[in-house]
Design brief:
- The complex is a heterodimer.
- Chain A has 32 helices and no strands.
- Chain A is an all-alpha fold.
- Chain A has a domain of about 120 residues: Leucine-rich Repeat Variant, CATH 1.25.10.10.
- In chain A, helix 19 runs antiparallel to helix 20 and helix 19 packs across helix 22.
- Chain B is mainly alpha-helical.
- Classes of the chains: A mainly alpha, B mainly alpha.
- Chains A and B meet through helix 1, helix 2, helix 17, helix 20 and helix 23 of A and helix 1, strand 2, helix 2, strand 3 and helix 3 of B.
- Chain A: It comes from Haplochromis burtoni (Burton's mouthbrooder).
- Chain A: This is Transmembrane and coiled-coil domains 6.
- Chain A: InterPro entries: ARM-like (IPR011989), ARM-type_fold (IPR016024), Armadillo (IPR000225).
Chain lengths: ~500, ~300
């Protein structure tokens, strides 16, 4: 993955600057989190020149209006050195204030578009490079100024030059988040069909596929996407193309698959009914890929950035399950290894990326909610003890695990007995003492299902001195706990108490 | 990452698409039969049904993954995480209303519970550190037969296990403890009943007036608030043993009367009520500590 390699390289080189880098990353992360909370999470990509190691904003020459104006003048009047001037212009346009100066200058865009569509191929390349720099601007009024160029950029998507096409794509992708007007125009100019045919025709040029999928993902994240963009995309051939590129190419790397997976995630989570995508095999493909990635991870092949692919795939599977009727589940999910792979992923990422582990157990909940087969699989494949061991971990992990276990207990009384044999009762005796109310209430819910299912379970619970735990809960401040524990005690458990006398009461 | 609130995949906040439990009419599992009859019981508070949880694009659960993705887009991705995100572990808490103790380990919870809630006197709700001391307490404080016999015989046992000596009065025992067993003169477990004082009667009145959660059930401070001091049931919670004073004196009759009053006038606990009746006790040792009162509770 060319981008990842570059970053690592950078980090390794600057020994002294490592702290600075760390600080910068942390600041950026904080800014991103705040942006997400404000629903303003937007990123742009800058395609570097071949000779560039890293984006270098600091200029040797003082940037400014002076440079822009003089360069534009030169461009208008020179004959043969246009290419050189354009190259210089693209370097100057890396600077934010120069970008603003450019768009304020009358005729500047007109001039650039002229060069973009001219007969000189090299000039066209440099012109699009200039546009690309402009598109990367963080000022939201720069992108609208580039609108005159977009019909041509879209036309060029079917062109033969990879580098050129890439630049066009990333430029368009950068422009998408900046304003409604820009997106409206792009949609009217046919960006969706253009992207579809681009991916279809250039399927084997993975750099182009990556760029096209990135651009699509920018469109799909827009706030008005569910109404204005996603229906069009779903009707196009894009979903099937995305699915066909989903399996990563071992040589090229994960990047195109990553972009496609995120596109699919945005598509799936934005619509309630995903029958179309189901019919195209989205669930089976995503889950198969998850299984193979899970296998790679467990074997220790943690390729750099693999979680960037695992993450959207998990979300695709998790959300699309709600569109899949129970009867069709087995037909759609052809890979029986999914439960085991998911459990493996949880273990693999529990300590390094707990958020990923949390999303994985969410998927397991959705998988087991209405499927007796998958609940049974968790038992037969001996995955339950591993899940029980995760019950100490908070921040949403243990509550979700209890949901999964409750899903299992809910299905059959034989499952309850098996859960008991696997030690769930003693685990519940611990979770009933947790501070988190949600954990206690869910524990009570499972306990209810299990004790009602079979006298064997009820007796075992009493033998493990569970009655005193419930009695304590009868005096809890929360009504939900009091009601449940009292009900359980009075209706179901106290009858077992006769068997317990003072003499055979276990010692404290 | 923040605490538990960040994850809002709970009953109230997630975009849930509840799928109703489908009870197929043919081939009904016994499990489902039983559940059906349970759910027909109007009092059944259990409501769990398996649910597929759908999460929209901006859900909080997705925050970390989105950030990861955008860091990558902005060329800020690094393969090895620099600061390992902290994996949180659930805490434990004493669930007895009024006790706000929280623990990071299960053993701490068990220790707390055993120390404070296990050997609790049914009548006066004092927490005793051991079954034996509880037995002695009940005998000496709540057994009218003891009071009668004590006038004629040596009824006060030495508190040291294995000593076996008995004494005519509390004071004699105390002297014995200090001289022979080198106990401190202000040993907490050996105060006289008289020193409990009027505070107890006042508190009981407050308690009856209180509507909801009663918080006088236990001491959250150390083990020591036992035979001497009254249970700390001020709304704010326990008093530390250092500051508690048992100055007010009441006659033994007053105290006995108060205790009796409580027992006779305590309302029978209604189904799922939210007041803790005075006579109800709990705890693992309750059978021993409360002399089989458990059966009475129903």
């Amino acid at each position: 993955m060319w981008r990842l390699n570059k970053v690592r390289h950078k980090a390794g080189q600057q020994g002294g600057n490592l702290d600075e880098l760390r600080l910068k990353r942390r600041e950026n992360e904080r800014a991103l989190r705040q942006a997400r909370r404000d629903r303003q999470l937007v990123s742009k990509r800058l395609l570097l020149n071949e000779d560039e190691e890293q984006p270098d904003v600091s200029m040797d020459t003082a940037p400014g209006g002076h440079d822009i104006v003089s360069l534009l003048h030169k461009l208008q009047h020179s004959g043969t050195e246009k290419e050189a001037h354009l190259k210089a212009l693209s370097k100057v346009l890396r600077d934010p204030s120069a970008q603003l100066t450019f768009i304020k200058h009358e005729n500047s865009m007109h001039l650039l578009v002229g060069l973009l569509t001219g007969s000189n191929a090299q000039c066209r390349l440099q012109a699009v490079r200039c546009l690309h720099e402009l598109s990367h601007s963080s000022h939201t009024n720069v992108a609208p100024a580039c609108l005159p160029a977009t019909p041509y950029l879209l036309t060029y998507l079917s062109g033969p030059s990879t580098k050129f096409t890439e630049l066009c794509l990333y430029t368009l992708g950068n422009m998408c988040p900046d304003s409604d007007v820009v997106r409206e125009k792009l949609l009217a100019q046919g960006i969706i069909p253009a992207l579809a045919s681009c991916i279809e025709n250039q399927r084997h040029t993975l750099a182009v596929v990556e760029a096209a999928a990135f651009t699509l993902s920018q469109l799909l994240q827009a706030r008005d996407a569910p109404e204005k963009i996603i229906p069009i995309v779903l009707k196009s051939t894009l979903p099937s193309h995305l699915l066909s590129v989903l399996t990563p190419d071992p040589q090229f790397g994960l990047a195109p698959a990553i972009e496609c997976a995120w596109c699919l995630h945005y598509l799936i989570c934005s619509t309630d009914d995903n029958k179309e995508l189901l019919a195209q095999g989205a669930l089976s493909q995503c889950s198969s890929l998850l299984v193979s990635l899970g296998g790679a991870v467990t074997e220790g092949n943690k390729e750099d950035g693999i979680e960037l692919l695992i993450w959207p795939l998990l979300r695709c599977v998790g959300n699309i399950l709600s569109s899949c009727p129970e009867e069709d589940l087995n037909a759609q999910l052809t890979d029986a290894h999914l439960p085991a792979s998911l459990c493996a992923l949880v273990q693999a990422y529990l300590h390094t990326l707990p958020a990923l582990a949390r999303e994985t157990v969410w998927v397991l909940n959705n998988l087991t909610a209405h499927s007796t087969e998958f609940c049974s699989a968790l038992l037969t494949l001996n995955l339950v003890p591993g899940l029980i061991q995760l019950l100490p971990f908070s921040q949403g992990i243990n509550t979700m695990i209890l949901r999964i276990l409750a899903n299992i207990a809910h299905k059959k009384k034989e499952f309850c007995v098996q859960l008991m044999q696997l030690g769930l009762l003693s685990a519940l005796c611990a979770t009933l003492k947790m501070a988190d109310q949600e954990m206690v209430i869910q524990s009570l819910d499972i306990l209810f299902m299990m004790t009602v299912s079979s006298p064997v379970v009820a007796e075992e619970f009493v033998r493990q001195d569970g009655l005193s735990l419930l009695e304590v809960l009868q005096y809890n401040g929360a009504a939900e706990m009091r009601q449940r524990s009292t009900y359980l005690l009075e209706k179901h458990l106290l009858s077992y108490q006769q068997h317990i006398t003072v003499d055979n009461m276990p010692d404290p | 990452m923040d605490t538990v609130e960040v994850l809002q995949v709970d009953r109230k906040e997630a975009m849930l698409q509840p799928e109703a439990l489908q009870l197929r009419t043919e081939g009904r599992d016994e499990q489902q039969e039983r559940r059906l009859s349970e759910s027909e019981d109007g009092n059944n508070p259990f409501s769990f049904t398996p649910q597929i949880i759908r999460l929209h694009k901006d859900h909080e659960l997705f925050e970390d993954g989105d950030i990861h993705r955008h860091m990558y887009l902005q060329d800020l991705y690094i393969s090895e995480a620099e600061d390992k995100p902290a994996l949180s572990v659930s805490e434990f808490a004493c669930h007895i209303s009024g006790c706000s103790a929280v623990f990071s380990a299960l053993e701490e919870y068990e220790h707390h519970y055993n120390a404070l809630h296990r050997h609790v006197c049914c009548s006066c709700r004092r927490s005793l550190p051991s079954a034996r001391l509880l037995d002695i307490h009940i005998q000496e404080w709540h057994d009218s037969l003891f009071t009668i016999l004590a006038q004629k015989q040596d009824m006060y046992q030495c508190l040291v296990e294995g000593c076996g000596q008995t004494f005519r009065t509390n004071k004699h025992r105390k002297d014995h403890l200090i001289r022979i067993h080198k106990y401190p003169p202000d040993f907490r477990f050996d105060k006289t009943k008289k020193e409990r004082g009027r505070r107890e009667t006042k508190r009981k009145e407050q308690k009856d007036a209180a509507m909801e959660v009663v918080d006088d059930v236990c001491e959250s401070e150390g083990v020591c608030e036992v035979m001497c001091n009254s249970p700390s049931d001020e709304p704010e919670g326990g008093e530390s043993m250092e500051t508690h004073e048992c100055e007010e004196k009441a006659s033994a009759e007053d105290v006995l009367a108060a205790a009796q009053d409580t027992e006779s006038t305590a309302p029978r606990k209604p189904q799922y009520s939210y007041r803790i009746p005075n006579t109800v006790c709990f705890g693992h040792g309750s059978v021993r500590g409360f002399r089989g009162r458990r059966g009475r509770r129903k």
